[in-house]
Amino acid sequence: MPRQRIIIGIDVGSSNIRVAVAEQGKEQGMPFQILGVGQTRALGMRKGVVVDLEETAKNIKEAVAAAERTSGIKIESATVSLGGDHLGCRSSRGVIAVSRADGEISAEDMDRAVRAASAISLGANREMIQIVPKQFCVDSQQSVKDPVGMKGVRLEVDVLILEGATPFIKNLVKAVGEAEIDIEGLVPSSLAAAKAVLDRRQKELGSLVLDMGSGTTGFCVFEEGEIVDSCILPVGSGHITNDLAIGLRIPIDVAEKIKLEYGSVLPDEINKKEMINLEKLGGDDGEVSRQKVAEIIEARVAEIFDLAHKRLKQIDRAGLLPSGVVLVGGGAKLPGLVDLAKQKLRLPSQIGFPIDFEGVIEQVDDPCFATVLGLIICAGEQNEELRSRVSNTFIFSSLAPAVNKFKNWFKSFLP
Fold first, then answer.
1. Which among 108, 168, 280, 365 has the fewest CB atoms less than 10 Å away?
2. Which residue from 194, 119, 108 is spatially nearest to 374, judged by alpha carbons?
3. Is residue 202 part of a domain?
4. How far apart are CA 415 and CA 405, in angstroms?
């Protein structure tokens, strides 16, 4: 029986913190077994960034403790999601000369090319989170996926650099550290969500993943098997709740209940006479029209889709992604959302559910868990790559915690 490895993912979102514990077999291709999950409210987060360090650390501890109880596994380290509209991306190109005299390209040449592409200035208080090679060019041969073993003199690579604001990243790292968890890697939340819900064919044909969180909406485009663009839209499902509270003049807690129980993005399909009793939801005496609720929700969701469409136009992909839009996150469960997405984005649309998982799958078979399960996939891929050769698709900076641990251990032996 091959040995198996425990992998932990922690999704620190704007409204919820989710922890998943999985088991990965030693053999490549074996499915992940979900052993347990934990979830709690994120009271110290706003729009994907830490606003209360102490409260965030406390909430992470609570979610971790819940996952430990359900899985029976002691959690000491994890791969963590990174959110917030400070995240962005930019393209870069690296060029090197092939090192071997016979012109055969090695893995070291690939890594040198990627590092040459990453040698750019990001500006003050910005740092690289991930470097994703999109394609290589060997002399005049374009669109090479893996040049190792090929012959050539000049090797070029086009990469996508995912970046973020250093202060926000450090605050998240500190909050996780105060929760007594070591970080194995940081992964942008939208990219993690895409890992969990897209299959190989969808990535090849071209897909957009919209991760509709509470404070923000993650935007991630794949084409020809690689990520093409990624950003964070500064509007999420929490804004819908705020709109309902203001538009209906009701408490925020009642607005959230109305959104969850009676929400829809298709007001034309709701009977004008259908009313919602506020008293049954904990509010004051009175009623509100369910159609009016749907009109308020539709306006905000349409804004999110308009922002996504604008971004698609900027990267020349508007209406040109055959696999369409995959919707994940808590906001993805609004009735009628798929139909409105088809209308606004002019693309096929569907709700995304995690794929290729076993175990207590009934606990995570939900668009809300896409990000935390994607973190497990990313960590598993990194584990496979470290066992073979240096990674060319994962986070270079994710190795930093392990490297620092080794340095500190080595220094302890010095006089």
1. 280
2. 194
3. no
4. 18
Structure tokens at 101: 């005299």
How confident is the model over 98-113, as a mean pLDDT? 92
> What's residue 386's pLDDT?
44
Nearest to 378 by CA among 195, 207, 201: 195
Q: Which amino acid is at 286?
A: G
CA distance 321 to 151: 34
Question: DSSP 3-state assignment of 143?
Answer: strand
Single residue among 278, 297, 316 that ends a domain in this structure: 297
- The alpha carbon of 390 is separated from its chain's Cα centroid by a whole number of angstroms, namely 23
Helix (H) or strand (E) holding 126: strand 126-138
The answer to whether residues 189 and 164 touch, using CB atoms and an 8 Å cutoff, is no
**CA–CA separation, 39 vs 415, rounded Å?**
45
- CB-facing half-sphere around the CA of 243: CA atoms within 13 A: 19
Where do runs of H (alpha helix) occur along 214-289? 237-248, 252-262
| pLDDT tens-digit series, residues 211-258 | 999 999 999 999 988 899 999 999 999 999 999 999 999 999 999 999
Residue 208's SS3 state is: strand
Number of domains in the chain: 2
Calculated CA dihedral for residues 166, 172, 178, 181, nearest 10 degrees: -110
Q: Give every CB contact of residue 190 below 8 A, 6+ residues apart in sequence.
A: 209, 211, 218, 219, 220, 230, 232
Provide the sign of the torsion angle of the four alpha carbons 223, 229, 233, 237, taken in this order: positive
CATH of the domain at 109: 3.30.1490.110
Token reading at 95: 């060029």
The radius of gyration of the chain from alpha carbons, rounded to an integer in Å, stands at 23
| Domain coverage including residue 243 | 237-297
Residue type, 235: V
Domain at 293, CATH number: 3.30.420.40
In a domain, 373, yes or no: no
H or E element: which one contains 389? none
The pLDDT assigned to 362 comes to 78
Is 172 a member of any domain? no
- Does residue 100 lie within any of the structural domains? yes
This prediction has a pTM of: 0.85
SS3 257: helix
The pLDDT-based confidence of 357 (bands split at 50, 70, 90) is confident
For 163, 191, 229, 238, 282, the CA distances from 196, given in Å and listed in that order, are 21, 9, 17, 23, 37
Considering Cα of 169, then 173, then 176, then 179, what sign does the dihedral take? negative
